[in-house]
Amino acid sequence: MEPTSLAILIKRYIHDELQEEEVAQLWETLREDQHQEKWEAAMTALLEDEAAHGLSDPAKMEQVWARIQPRPSRSMQPITSGKWRWLAAAAVVSVMAGASTYFVLLRHPRTVAVAVHPATPLPSPVKPGNNKAVLTLANGTQIPLDSSGNGAVAVQGNSQILQQSNGQLTYKNSGTTAAGQLQYNNLHIPRGGQFRITLSDGTKVWLNAASDLHYPASFTGTDRRVELTGEAYFEVAQLPAKPFKVIVHNTEIQVLGTNFNVKAYQDEPITQTTLLEGAVKMKTGSQEARLRPGQQAQVQAGGMLTIKDEVDVEEVVAWKNGYFQFNHEKISGVMKQLSRWYNLEVSYQGNIPAREFGGRIARSSSIEEIIRILELSKIHVKIDNHKIIVMP
To answer: Can you give the pTM of this predicted structure?
Structure first.
């Protein structure tokens, strides 16, 4: 395909003027390595065409790219000028097309970026996750929760439990509860779900898919203690006289008032605690450490505690803000996150290429869009009911 005809296809695609067979031709061109230079030239020409998009001003292009690209960690290698032109072009086309999603395949020696557009629907019942949870009260009663509920759910001790229609549960404490009347509740988030909860002390917690939070309906005593499996983001209410503690496996995270994210899935080899604001103290076995904002504590399965500096906190909390965000992530890591959110089992067939991915995908994306992204990266998958099979 000549560069001129390729540029025409790109322009017509952006304006939704392509026939189905022309769309297939465009995607196939991007898929094949031997067309990369022609594709890059066409994208660069489009980027420089002010009449097409009004973004030929380098300063404007820099602003667009800065808004879209994930912030690289210091361990990443700088992008060469040739790679910059390609990445910037793809990013601008993504903005022009109104896309909120982009993905990058990181591989030696070339970096390829793909602006994502809706793919042909697949015969699959798989849907993105949504607001859903199961609340278990102190007496064992289970209450299913979703986005449609609104109003009082139950009363536990002196706390009234209220559900809002935006996928949020709130505990309203009406008074002081004696220590002997402590009642524990559990909020379970299934695969394919997420939910928010405001505890009786005002602490806000966002819970990711496949997570459980075990907590008292009202806090009493000298501290506030909850237990977590899975992943959660905490905004802790400041009560200096009552430290807030999160128990994760054999680790205790203690704070007075701060924002932090904890990732502690049973199928992950490392428990990660990432601090955004304030200060926290970690304790596991005989080891202790204090975190500063931007640091991440990592606890290995064997109990070893290490501290990682200058973590990309936007990547860590992307799930809370409605995105998957990857930075040099292996396909196995990508698939773990996708499997929890889309409620999919994952299996692998054959020799899967050892590649790394980077970029951002809206969690509202359909599974068809995800499959298209992987196919463009030469990772082939197929859906069998609620099972995704990854192939070379």
So the answer is: 0.72
